[in-house]
Structure formats: C-alpha cells, structure tokens
Amino acid sequence: MPDIVPNDLSSGLEQLGLHVARTVRIWPAGLSSRGWDGEGYSEWLTTEQPCFGIVHDHPVDQYGLSLNNSAETLIKARPAGSPLFVKLPQLPAGIHTLCITTRRGYPRSRRGPSGSRPSRRPRRLERHCAIQRPFFLTRK
Question: Which residue of 68, 98, 102, 137 has the smallest Cβ count within 10 Å?
C-alpha cells in the first residue's frame, strides 16, 4: 500500500469493504520547543511564537484552526503529503489549546456543484502549549 492512497484507490477499497487508515500529523516546527512529548504537549517561552507543521495522507480541502476556543480560522490545505506550517502569535504565560479540524468538501449547510455533501465528518485534533516566562541568570 502506498504512503499516500489516491482517492480512486481508496474508493475502490471501500467498495470491497476495506477502509484505509487516515492520519494527520502535527508537530512543533522552527525553533525547537521544550518538552515536546510527541503526543500533543509542548512548551514555549513568552518571547517566542509557537510554530507547528501539519501534514495529512488523505484528501483534505482545508483546516479549521482555533486557539483557546476562539473563532475558527479556515486555511486551505496543501496536497496530501505536503506539510503546511502555521505560526501562532506570541502568547501570554499559561496553558493554551490549539484545535485543528480537517475539512473536506462543502459545509454541511451547502451542497457542492454536483449536489453532493461532504462524505466524512471533520476530524478534530488538539495540541496543548505551555507558555512560560523566560528567566535570566545574573552574576553577583
């Protein structure tokens, strides 16, 4: 099975009753974050702007991003296997939650050009960022 399964192959497998596992990876990018646990928790300083890479291995049209349950911002996804990099603003000290939702097709309230609706429910992922104030050592 190829790393990135094309739509036509995936559809053919589904007709046979087989389902292809779909993944979305999100990781800290740019300056190395402190305390990245590989699962969704990272640590940054208040003087940094957290950056994340996002890549998917299946068709995705857009990502919905929200920080701390704020309004969602939609960003056009790149082709499967091609990472997208997102830079957050400097954040105050504390724990912040970045929610990423994958979207495919049209919003549920609208139909596409052929009258179709999205075939899959959006997938929601969360990443937690602990933001700390930097401390400076001074000589006495």
Answer: 137
Return the ∠ at Cα 45 (arms to 48 and 75), rounded to 5°.
45
Average pLDDT in the 35-64 region?
90
Is 4 among the domain residues?
A: no
| CATH label of the domain that carries residue 33 | 2.60.40.10
- DSSP sequence for 83-136: -EEEEPPP--SEEEEEEEEEE-SS-TTS--TTS---SSPPEEEEEEEEEE----
Q: What's the whole-model pTM score?
A: 0.74
What values do phi and psi take at 9, rounded to 5? -65, -45
Number of domains the chain is built from: 1
User: Is 123 inside any structural domain?
Assistant: yes
| Residue 112 scores a pLDDT above 50 | no
11: helix, coil or strand? helix
Type of residue found at 93: A
